[in-house]
Amino acid sequence: MADFKLDSRLSADTIAIGDSGLCRLLLMDDSRFPWLIMVPRRFDITEVHELTPLDQTVLTFEIAQVSEILKDITGCKKINIGALGNMVPQLHIHIIGRNEGDIAWPGPVWGAGKSVPYDEKTMRTFIERFSSALQQAS
Amino acid sequence: MADFKLDSRLSADTIAIGDSGLCRLLLMDDSRFPWLIMVPRRFDITEVHELTPLDQTVLTFEIAQVSEILKDITGCKKINIGALGNMVPQLHIHIIGRNEGDIAWPGPVWGAGKSVPYDEKTMRTFIERFSSALQQAS
């Protein structure tokens, strides 16, 4: 089986946080929303139902864990979860913390204006908080 | 524990197909896209991570099954899965069959123009095909 390789467009739009049991964890470089992307480290998978049943179960566990931590550390009102892949076919799951009054509320974040990249310090602080909470939960 | 009751806005926008082990299955009354909605029949749940681990596992299984059937019977190019809930907090999962050239492609379907209700015959035919495929798969 060929190796997992992160799609170049996902790589260009994000900052790598690290790996969970199944997924590469990425922070979308858009400071308007706390927005993570989870990419199962499997070769040539575009749909959730193409994963093995075990991988599907692990993915669900990891999505729930990441969602809960994101809600916890940001205090956001709602988590949005999405697996779209119309532009980037490599299976990837968006986990986004949403708040009333954010720039896309109550619509979806996809296609809502232009992203605003993080400044280095804010980005580092966010990744440290998230990673530390994930480590404590695991 | 109080009983599950379908949110009135979900009810108004959809046609009921039936119940899976965990979910109420609904067809979005928008003939522009093959668009299903799955609502876990649990009381007062707004986020996937609030479900019990067993319900999360069953939900994943059912999402994968419904996605695969939808892709199969429609021949669509891509499945979009989304759990947003910014407007309707009751946890519900969108499963949408997407095609290059559909009216929202490659963007998300949410917020893309006005829905076009089904005519009775097309709607009945779709529900029969889907239900029959689901029964065979279960």
From TrEMBL, chains A, B:
Residues 36-105 form the HIT domain. This is Histidine triad (HIT) protein. InterPro entries: HIT-like (IPR011146), HIT-like_sf (IPR036265), HIT_Hint (IPR026026). GO terms for molecular function: catalytic activity. It comes from Ahrensia marina. SUPFAM superfamilies: HIT-like. It holds the Pfam family HIT. It comes from the Bacteria. PROSITE patterns: HIT_2.
